[in-house]
Amino acid sequence: MEQVQYHTIPVMKKPYLLILALTILSACSYSQDVIRLESCTNGSMNKQVDSLKDAYSKEGYELLKEASIKMESEFEMPVIVPLTQGSWYQFVFIGDYSSRLYEVRMYDWKERMVIFRQKRWGEIDGNVISYTYVPQFSEFHMMKPVQVNKQKKKNLCGYVMLFKRTAESAVGSVTTSAPQNVVE
């Protein structure tokens, strides 16, 4: 009869190494504050969203992306979108009515700021920032909306939309933007 040999696993002689490794792993997992996109609802904002969707669709834009986002006062909420060279885009950000300041900055892939818009409470459509953009290159762009609210620091509602001009409406706009007076 053969004897079976069992190998025993040596007990860690230095338990402080295990404790140190676990401490480092737990510290690394808690040290990264990740911005998570959370949705929110706001009845009066939904009316604005619906009317803007209707208005832009009548102007020849199709809705590509939209999201309601829960925001904090004075903190940017990055939104990354792929854009195609030469296409006409319409970006819209709607902030909470009670905020006092609204800003949107947009950056290209090389982190150059290509758009900066700011509005204050009390202006006509003060909580809505919209702008048209035609990218020079097909690449990702980052839109960073922010709003400042003195009463509510958290749980502010924001809404972002990305529209793209349809091919039919883009052709018409190119011909209307050509010079009318041509010298022969």
What is this structure's SSE topology?
Blueprint: H1 15-31, H2 43-58, E1 61-71, E2 79-83, E3 89-94, E4 101-107, E5 113-120, E6 128-133, E7 139-148, E8 156-165, H3 167-176
Antiparallel strand pairs: 1-8, 2-7, 3-6, 3-8, 4-5, 4-7
Q: Mind explaining what this structure looks like?
A:
This protein starts with 14 loop residues before the first helix and ends in an 8-residue tail after the last helix. It has helices at residues 15-31, 43-58, 167-176; strands at residues 61-71, 79-83, 89-94, 101-107, 113-120, 128-133, 139-148, 156-165. The chain has a four-stranded antiparallel sheet. A four-stranded antiparallel sheet has the order 2-7-4-5, with no helix packed on it. The protein is α+β, with helices and mostly antiparallel strands and 184 residues long. The chain has a domain at 43-165: Jelly Rolls.
Strand content bin:
25-35%
Instruction: Output the structural class.
Output: alpha+beta
Rounded radius of gyration (Å): 26 Å
- Placed side by side, the strands forming the largest sheet appear as 1-8-3-6
Would you list the SSEs in sequence order as H and E?
A: HHEEEEEEEEH
Keywords:
four-stranded antiparallel β-sheet, 23% helix, 184 residues, disordered C terminus, 3 helices, alpha+beta, Jelly Rolls
Sum this structure up briefly.
By secondary structure, the protein is α+β, with helices and mostly antiparallel strands. The protein has three helices and eight strands, in the order H-H-E-E-E-E-E-E-E-E-H.
